[in-house]
Inverse folding.
């Protein structure tokens, strides 16, 4: 990054948001970290280039302090695994007339999670992730199902979940291109990594 660009991370108190914040703090870029109820970790708040901002996606008037003047927005805020998703999924934090709904923004070419993780580790200087054999994952999910049946509780991992996760997925980004972001600065993972 050539000049000092203010980076807004929404959901900065969550797992992904706080990991990214910790990764970016040593770079010295101004970080605006948006959180809702859960406060930001002390070791993040105390960094000199961090500005914490409390806001609520349900109340757009609270968002202007967070988004005004931000050069880059990394959007992690949201409700994960909440009941009745039809009540919160149609909402978006983009301030454009008529913008409403779910927009899929992704690479302009397919990229697998395995390739993404390998490339991220290569660029950041970490060892390549260890792959657990598929049979071991199925064995763990079967064990979870049996224990859940005995305890009469929902299973945290099921064989169906594993099968669903192994299905290839490709998101249609046309609506996002037409209504929201006509051109991505880094349209592919390779293009983004080439700037590092």
């Amino acid at each position: 990054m050539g000049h000092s660009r203010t980076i807004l991370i929404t959901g900065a108190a969550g797992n992904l948001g706080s990991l990214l914040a910790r990764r970016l703090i040593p770079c010295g870029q101004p970080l605006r970290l948006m959180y809702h109820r859960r406060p930001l970790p002390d070791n993040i708040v105390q960094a000199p280039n961090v500005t914490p901002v409390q806001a609520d996606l349900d109340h757009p008037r609270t968002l202007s302090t967070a988004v005004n003047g931000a050069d880059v927005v990394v959007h992690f805020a949201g409700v994960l695994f909440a009941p009745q998703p039809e009540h919160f999924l149609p909402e978006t934090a983009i301030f454009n007339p008529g913008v409403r709904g779910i927009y899929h923004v992704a690479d302009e070419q397919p990229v697998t999670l395995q390739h993404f993780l390998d490339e991220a580790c290569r660029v950041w200087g970490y060892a390549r992730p260890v792959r657990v054999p598929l049979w071991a994952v199925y064995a763990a999910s079967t064990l979870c199902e049996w224990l859940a049946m005995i305890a009469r509780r929902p299973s945290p991992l099921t064989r169906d979940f594993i099968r669903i996760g192994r299905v290839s997925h490709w998101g249609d980004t046309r609506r996002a291109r037409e209504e929201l972001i006509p051109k991505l600065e880094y349209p592919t993972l390779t293009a983004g990594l080439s700037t590092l």
